[in-house]
Amino acid sequence: MSPRTVFRTLLATCLLAVTAGACGSERPETLVVLGPWTGPEGKAFEAMLHRLDDGTGKSYTYQGTRSLRETLGAQLEAGDPPDVAILNSIGELVEHARAGHLTPLDRAATARAYPPWAPRLDVDGGRRTYWVPLKVDLKSLVWSKEGSARDRPAWCVGLASQATSGWPGTDWIEDILLHQAGPATYTRWATGDVRWRDPRVRRAWTTWAELLGRRTRAAVDRSLTTPYVGPRGLLDSQRPRCTHEHQGAFIRYVYAHDRVRVEPAAGYLGGRPEHDGAYEVAGDMAAVFSGDPAARALVDRLSGERARALWRERASDGLQPFFPDASDPQPTDATGRRIADILTAKARTLCFDASDVMPPGVRDAFHRAVLQYFGDPTEKRLDELLGRLDTVRTEAAKDAAPGHLPESEVCAPPGG
Question: In the prediction, which pLDDT does 404 show?
Fold first, then answer.
């Protein structure tokens, strides 16, 4: 039973008991927020959310889950969606907008919803904004042990992630393509206008295999079953010992010590110097799934300055979130400040995670193909996998009805 259903049941019981004096005359309205954060991250977000209760007459409850897609789908099917859900997949958000699940945002939130995190969509004859980023992350990063040779990296690889296993590998291929072929080709590929068998895309796959080098069957199997993150991070725990890891900014919470350095990934990917200023990014976007005007007002408040300041205050070092504009409060730890500077000042172009832009069916096929290629990085196997992906791409294109993602908003300069 969802938190809102529980609340409604309690409220109904209360109303039946009013004549007996069991309930007060008024109760605050409760809005339900569904999100991806659990553990310390979830507690920090929830603490911020409760601070937003003050003076509004509203009550907010947070439901955090690692199975966000499945939970949201079940709630929609049951006709009891959350008031607000926080998703990291633009492809899924586009599908929800086209299906009529989302309510367009108010003007105040729309002003903070700029590319590449929140494009405006043409749905039902109107160009509207349906979500806004709450926090963002930089992905084009390499973490390495201090003193390790930059020109001879031994790469850590962990590809397991419950139902979404494989995404650490798709991040590699996306980042390589971005730096080899540039943002324009990356955008056309992410939105389905460049074939998977295109030589530029194929080269990104083979470059990944070359960078990782030859691996024993035992090492391959170990990487396929190793979670992408552990209590101490892959650099400190993976066997055999490795020296470098390609991973996003969120991983800094396990590397909060001076023995690990972080730097842009461009220098490792065999790219072209003119594309060094391009970075892959991801975001967690809030969308309204109910018709309650109070839900739209909540998204406006969640994306505002006060909520961001409260969130940073409540989160511990290494878990303080990154926000999309240089004027927003940023992390206070040294590593976080360096990453925020790249994200908001040094980067010339930010490109949203390509697999999160793709329709969910294409994205899921990409995840599976990465796992299969990692296990068998041969030319024959790659031909087969890219052919399958082109078939999935063609099928997805048939369903690209009004509401599809505009190419112009996948990559953008920092700060909109």
Answer: 61
